[in-house]
Amino acid sequence: MSKSQRTFEGRFENLAKIGEYIEGITAKTGLDEKQRYAVQLAVDEAASNIIEHAYRDVKDGKIDMSIEHSPQKLVIIVHDEGKPFDPSAVEKFDLELSLEDMTDRGAGLHLIENIMDEVEFKFNGEKGNTLKMVKILG
Amino acid sequence: MKIDTSELKRCDLVEVTGRIDSSNADDLMVAINAIQEAGRHKIVLDLSKLEFMSSKGWWVLIQAQKASKRYNRGEVLLAAVPPKIKDALDLVGIDKLFTQYDDPIDAVGSF
Questions:
Q1: Model confidence at A127, in pLDDT bands (50, 70, 90)?
Q2: Most buried among A36, B57, B87, B94, by the most CB within 10 A?
Q3: With an 8 Å Cβ cutoff, are B21 and A40 in contact?
Q4: Do the beta carbons of residue B12 and residue B35 sit within 8 Å?
Q5: Contact across the interface for A38 and B21, Cβ inside 8 Å
Q6: Tell me, what's the ipTM?
């Protein structure tokens, strides 16, 4: 079991650094290039959501990442101390809409849920939001 | 991200290099809007040098396509989308909403 922890300041300018961090970890997992890219995208969507919504009125809130991987699975935990996030309140992304009716609402969450094998959100009033994402390996 | 635009005889070619995420997707929107506001709606996006695109970038492409296709005045075509990016974008329906070409020259030639 390999473990890694890193904290980033919640700014859009740090998304590239977060991407490099995830690529560095996933390169050691045996995932192929497409799967590594997809995991990086899922984490980017999660971090972007935190910066845009949870930390909307907060400058430089912290995003904590905690990652573990074994030969069987990759577990990524993303934590913030921003506004509560309720995934059930997010409008469901609809792939069947016509171009003219297409919206971006729910697109990030839709990507996360389709890329990762398990997705779990938790909110604790004092501790903030925790998103656990699992990718099954092998 | 680097954006290079060229006005060709039959369309405009936009080459995007690097990474599009929430920090810079608006810059791409501004570049495409400038072409469309000048009345040119036939646009080829050469994505061969694109390294990463989040849903924020995908939304810029959708908005550009909506503007170009309105009143049948044009279309945004995608060219040389890297396979890993294409696979991810198919999850949000990019395959259904854009005609795609392997080679930007073929995309330009289609107008």
A1: confident
A2: B57
A3: no
A4: yes
A5: no
A6: 0.95
Using CB atoms, pick whichever of A34, A44, A110 lies closest to residue B87: A34
Q: Does B23 contact A110 at a Cβ distance shorter than 8 Å?
A: no
Are B88 and A99 within 8 A, CB to CB? no
Report H helices in A66-117: 107-115
pLDDT (tens digit, 9 = 90+) per residue, B17-61? 999 999 999 999 999 999 999 999 999 999 999 999 999 999 999
Domain that holds residue B33: 2-106
Closest CA to B57 of B23, B107, B90: B23
Helix ranges restricted to H, A27-91:
33-49
Of B56, B65, B93, the CB nearest to A48: B56
Structure pTM? Answer: 0.96
Specify if B33 maps to a domain: yes
Residue B111 lies in a domain: no
